[in-house]
Predict the 3D structure of the following.
Amino acid sequence: MNILGIIFFVISAIALMSVPRRWAVIPLLMGVIYITHGQAVNLGGIKLPVFRMLLAVGLVRVVVRGEGFAGGFNLIDKLMLMLGGWLFFASFFHEPGAAAAGPTFIIGKVAEISLCYFLVRSFCQDLDDFASIMGVIAILMVPIALEMIQEKFTEINLFSKIFGGVREAVVVREGELRARGPFRHAILAGTVGASLIPIMLGLWRRNPRAAMIGLVACLTMVASCASSGPVLSLIFGMMGVCLWRFRNLMTLIRWSIPVGLLTLHMVMEKPVWFIIGRLSMGGSTGWHRSKLIDSSIRYFGDWWAFGTDHTRSWMPTGVTFSEEHTDITNYYLAFGVMGGLLAMLLLIAMIWVAFRWTGQMIDAIPEETDEHGDRFMIWCMGSSLFSHVATSISVAYYDQSVFFFWFSIATISSLAWLRFGLQEESLEAIREDDDPASKMQYSS
């Protein structure tokens, strides 16, 4: 870790420990967004990026200050703990020394995703908190968007020059420069921008200036990455936003999706998941993503119980970091490889509950009292999650992008107390009440 990385970490850590709760996620976000994974400390062979060290600082803050969760411990919280516990248990059934496996690797992975989730749960406790955080995120995206634009002109990644951890030269594919900013892949940079666009639209009524800035910055990120995946992520997110006008028909729409996929499966020459390849644009690897799903079904017996350390036989191509693995470009399958079918189902269960609670929160807010457009903003939170859910079929999140996936689930979980139609004073009573039984009555 160089001197700039050390200074940035120290300043972010001090701010994270000292600012009021509502703003605590901001220094955490700055460390997540601006510092590459190349800035890290090695402790006994274990690499600790600045991102993870700031998560640890955030945990210390929560413990020292006794900052709890709005509405008490809920169902998604329990599912998160179950996922972490199962992944740790399953890690003992992997081969010692296997790449991306084993207890040491899983402890780091579980700590990363669970702290992302639980810290956001603690720092964001109501709609005002969420709107304030998103307003700042909109501003924080501007330097990344500007840097990605300059990548398109200079073919040099400034984050690599300052912090390292990403390639200095910009990747060129089919004549297009693929800017990546501080992220380790251009697709991840564009996906983060695309997933935030629905929320920027939802923020418009509360903070139009920040929403406009965020929209321009995020659209710039999508355009600069020159990848078809983020464009599809944006399309799915905007589809979710547009369905706001048809929200009373969502039951019919939800059931039409599996029925439609089943129909396509019956009429297509190949299985329905090969439609991913047909949706891909330009020179993207849509076929690889379709074939990966096909191979995971074919080799289901190898990984369903506790995951697997051997996926190289699934595909004709491999990865540079291991001779035993292929490129798992699917976030659901990535959990399956780490912890088997149960790990994948726990992830899907959290997503399903988050969608259900999104609808319940909207229903609990009377339309006639919705002066700030909170119902639409909550809907846009669900649309952002839908963008992540669709993207996860073709992208396995890693590096800083992990934070934004779990941020989406955590913010919905944090605001879930709204589905009871509580007033602000009721929430304050929950925060101040030290009786666990009283808090649990508001959780699932």
Observations:
- Residues 241 and 337 are 33 Å apart (CA to CA).
- Residues 423-427, 433-444 have pLDDT under 50 and may be disordered.
- The chain has 19 helices and four strands.
